[in-house]
Amino acid sequence: MAGDILDNQGRGEAGWQWPSIHPEGRKFALITAAASLVTAFLAWETIAWPMAFLTLGVLAFFRDPERVVPQDDKYIVSPADGMVSLITQVEPPAELVGDDGSGTTGLPAGPVTRVSIFMSVFDVHINRAPIGGIVRRVVYMPGKFMNADLDKASEENERQHLLIERPDGVSIGFTQIAGLVARRIVPFVKPGDMIAVGQRVGLIRFGSRVDVYLPAGTSPRVVLGQTVIAGETVLADIGTQPLIEGVSQ
């Protein structure tokens, strides 16, 4: 069950179960399932079968499995399922820097490490909080729908910036970016919400990317090409700069 204690001392009860389907996806599944049934009733099999398979694809896309979230204040966990496609030094988005007029201090100016996670249509698209704390900003930016794997998608695509501040003042910013197929970013949180690390914060419909901006003095614990899991994979330890190397196979 969600919330059960699972650890390396044998506590908890492990078991496989079908992942739930997020409510955001149920309406799409109902539409495609209805179309499949109607076309089957009309004996339009060439349409009915593809619509039936599309229904299964929609259900798979909106699956919402439970996750076992690491509980350590030094960890920044992955906000998205997918592949680490870019690790680079950049200036954080202007929408997350400085005072936005609300009296809330954003990220400091200056280069930081950005870890980009590309989500294919086969990945889980529920995004989760990389740290626990107060949601300070949720800023939606309209834009284009270029391939989310491109570096310039961070500045030109439709996107939504989020800023979370921990009780000790450490802030993490991250950005949900729409891709070629994605046409809507759906937030689950708003400024002022108190959230836990690994908590669901939103989704991006039908393929996209999430950028995470690490604090100064923090290097990623992941490498290019690595597959990460939202709410489980540790992206970085705050304040540490290990050199992590991998060999592609």
Automatic annotation (TrEMBL):
Catalyzed reaction equations: a 1,2-diacyl-sn-glycero-3-phospho-L-serine + H(+) = a 1,2-diacyl-sn-glycero-3-phosphoethanolamine + CO2
Organism this protein belongs to: Tsuneonella suprasediminis
Family annotation (Pfam families): PS_Dcarbxylase (PF02666)
Electron transport as UniProt keyword: no
Membrane topology, from the record: Peripheral membrane protein
Positions of transmembrane segments: 28-61
The protein's name: Phosphatidylserine decarboxylase proenzyme
Any GO BP: phosphatidylethanolamine biosynthetic process
Swiss-Prot/TrEMBL site (Cleavage (non-hydrolytic)) positions: 207-208
Cofactor: pyruvate
Gene Ontology cellular component annotations, sorted alphabetically: plasma membrane
Enzyme nomenclature, EC number: 4.1.1.65
Pyruvic acid (Ser): modified positions: 208
Compartment list: Cell membrane
Entry keywords, A to Z: Cell membrane, Decarboxylase, Lipid biosynthesis, Lipid metabolism, Lyase, Membrane, Phospholipid biosynthesis, Phospholipid metabolism, Pyruvate, Transmembrane, Transmembrane helix, Zymogen
Note on how the cofactor is bound: Binds 1 pyruvoyl group covalently per subunit.
Stored PANTHER family: ARCHAETIDYLSERINE DECARBOXYLASE PROENZYME-RELATED
PTM: Is synthesized initially as an inactive proenzyme. Formation of the active enzyme involves a self-maturation process in which the active site pyruvoyl group is generated from an internal serine residue via an autocatalytic post-translational modification. Two non-identical subunits are generated from the proenzyme in this reaction, and the pyruvate is formed at the N-terminus of the alpha chain, which is derived from the carboxyl end of the proenzyme.
Keyword Nucleus: no
